[in-house]
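Q: Could you fold this chain for me?
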Amino acid sequence: MIARSIRFAAALAAVGAILTIDSQLRVNATTAALTLLLAILGISAQLGLTEALAASVAAMFGFNILFLPPIGKLTIQDPQNWVALAAFLVTAVTASQLSAHARRRAAEAEARRVEIEQLYSLVQSMLLTGSARKTIREFVNRAIQVFGCTAAAFYYRPTDEFVRSGPESQVVTDHELLVESEVENPSVDLLRGVALAPVRLGGRPLGSMALIGPPPPDKMVRAISNLMAITIEKARALEDAGHAEAARQSEALKSALLDSLAHDLKTPLTSIKAAVTSLLGGAPGADKELLTIINEEADRLNRIAAEVVEMARIEAGKLHLEKQPVAVPELIAGALSELSVPLRGRPFTVRVAGDLPNAIADRDFAAQVVRQFVENALKYSPEGSPVEVSAEAKGGKIVIGVGDRGPGIEENERTRIFDKFYRGRRHRFDTEGTGMGLAIAKGIVEAHGEKIWVVSEPGQGAVFYFSLAASAGGREG
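A: Sure. Below is the predicted structure, expressed as structure tokens.
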């Protein structure tokens, strides 16, 4: 009310100021009428129709008294007065209508801009989620911030789950959400301050949503429900694709495991079967040799079984380390002592930097990595070619490497060489092994919190490295 009074006073003051100025300047009636019309036009544009009508009446009376003869008298009977009044009134009404229409269109445009920004903010937050459930939870939480609601709720039909933002959302019951999921159109209850809408995609119901508090416009509610349907369906599609890819990789992994184990179990079993058959046949003088074959192949089967168990422990996160300071020369020597037979006849060198600090590691597991590297070098390099083990300190770490003069590893295989069951394309069928050795080595190294890598050039051999933390206390006494 006070604001309206102020606007009326401002409109009348503007007309009075124009009349006073025109009167002081002694302008003619035509000029005075034009200035008053411009003033009324401005008042209607800025203040509104009612204020412009009041200003028109005041301008007509002032124009009549000050500029129409007889000057100083109000003679409303004169036709000129009626023409002036009509001109002022038509100007006021026309200008006010145009101004109101422009303000209304500007307000609508601003409201649409705000709605688009709100929807964009909601989309941006929900697109980062990875599943339908997370999308719905993000919606009920973000709706309060984005749309100024006091609470939100959602019913997800595929899992028969209700998701709410807080106690305030209990204003809408589960039953109401269930019923709303079956209808086609949203409903806005202004008295309760609740907006309910079904969430459907292509006629298929996905659930329903509720916004509690000052409800958005009906069109906005529809836009939100459509947006939710599209976003949930996208999240579900990504989930399904992820599950399908995981299943595909699982099947590929199982196939690779079965192929690898079938190949590696068949070879020693064939040798054992042949040796046992010969023993049963009673071939003279062959007992010791055949028993040796049986013993070696049994050991080989035992190693394969041990690798499978070790890989399972690593993947289950049940690799328990007992880390302590370990002298690197002793670590390497302990690993090589178990490979004396395979290393026989091979040029072999160990190069350990002087004053090398102790490594912080589980002695047995770290030695297992060294053994795996050496066995790998012996397996994939020509007989009689040299193998070298090195150890040095770099950047606060102990780096241990095993190099060979084999055919090397092609660039496209280096990123996969530590994968489970992966074996190089050229050696897949002509070299013994399950393809788990390097994967186990990687699991052991990563359990230490360290890194494992390979440097290789085709035809130039390969060097496998892994790092261990260096002891701050230096070497053991």
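A (continued): The chain is about 55% helix and 15% strand.
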